[in-house]
Amino acid sequence: MKKAIVLGATGGSGQVIVSELLSRGTEVIAFGRSKSKLEQLMKEHDHSQHLSYSIGDIFDYQTIVEAAEDAEVIFQCANVPYQEMASKLLSLGESVMKAADILGKKIVIVDGIYIYGHQVAKGDENHPKQPHTKKGKIRFEFEKLIFSQKWKNAKALIVRLPDYYGATSQNSYLQPTLNGLAANKTTVFIGDLKTPREYVYLPDAAKMIVEIAEKDDSYGENWNIPGPGLISGNEIIQIARQVTGQKKMVFPLTKNIIQILGLFNPFMKEVVEIMYLTKEGFILDGEKYEKRIGPIPKTPYKEGMEETMRTLMR
Fold first, then answer.
1. Element (H, E) at 213
2. Which among 47, 104, 120, 250 is placed 20 to 30 Å from 236, CA to CA?
3. Does residue 306 lie within any of the structural domains?
4. Phi-psi region of 25 (alpha: psi -120 to 50; beta: other; left: phi over 0)
5. What is the mean pLDDT of the chain?
6. 299/303 Cα distance (integer angstroms)
7. pLDDT tens digits along 33-91
8. For residues 24 and 129, what is the distance between their CA atoms, to the nearest angstrom?
9. Please, which residues have CB within 8 angstroms of residue 246's CB and are 6 or more apart in sequence?
10. Please, are residues 255 and 271 in contact by the beta-carbon 8 Å criterion?
């Protein structure tokens, strides 16, 4: 891959994919709405000659077409807030796919696991898609749109991540916890502190996503991006405290508490329906990746959390 464009390049997954592509010598176009954020991204990469940026609107396919004309692969990392998912997600999908189809490009869609609903079988790419939440059902419609037969020229694939963490993370469930601990403040943890759950370290996810994108036969399919195993909230907090040396309280936010917060906060109102994941978890199987791509990068939680915390404390 000689040249790629990353839509939503200043977001959590977008930033690590930009970094991973640059590390491989790929020319990268960072696409986003905010000139100041894009310029900051350029600065963080020492204004690399392989990195440029383009200002545009993810909902305006024409701006994507103009920016992506010379790219071989489009990485779609932009997202919409929970409270706007019902009204905007399908429009986003229509825009990016229309641009990819006009240009005849490969496009990699970064998505999550709400589409599966409760885990009822092995968590591979063939797990039944039985979403029981509003957001899960919207994500199912989103997948159907991405793989629609109406796109005659675009070649799409979807990568699915569990919850994630890392220095660039912005909207993950772990972020309030890690930010609070890094700032030596009393903070919260979304969910049960005792439930073992899966998280993926964003730099590991970026490596896997780019490896998948490099393979011509990866397209037209879903791909899991699993983490290194399970870890509880209590274990995460213990690791973070070892780095910070701080002992401020971390309060778990249960479903009942979030329902109350949702009366005043539109984001929290939308979090309620997917709290099942914080209680049950969902474990992604990486067998397909291992068979067709290679070994899965598995940064140990201790190492990844320590690096994340050190970065947040700077």
1. helix 202-214
2. 120
3. no
4. left
5. 95
6. 7
7. 999 999 999 999 999 999 999 999 999 999 999 999 999 999 999 999 888 999 999 99
8. 35
9. 181, 184
10. no
The two tokens of residue 306 are: 């320590």
Q: Using CA of residue 276, residue 277, residue 278, residue 281, what is the dihedral sign?
A: positive
Q: Tokens in use for 115?
A: 């589409």
Instruction: Answer yes or no: is 276 within a domain.
Output: no
Residue at 164: amino acid letter: Y
Q: Name beta bridge partners: 54.
A: 31
- By the 8 A CB rule, do 41 and 19 touch? no
C-alpha distance across the termini of the chain, in Å: 34
Q: What is the CATH number of the domain that holds 213?
A: 3.40.50.720
Q: How many Å separate Cα 149 from the centre of its chain? A: 26
The pTM (predicted TM-score) of the whole model is: 0.96
Q: Give per-residue pLDDT as tens, 219-244.
A: 999 999 999 999 999 999 999 999 99
Sign, Cα dihedral of 228, 220, 16, 169: negative
Count structural domains, the chain.
Answer: 1
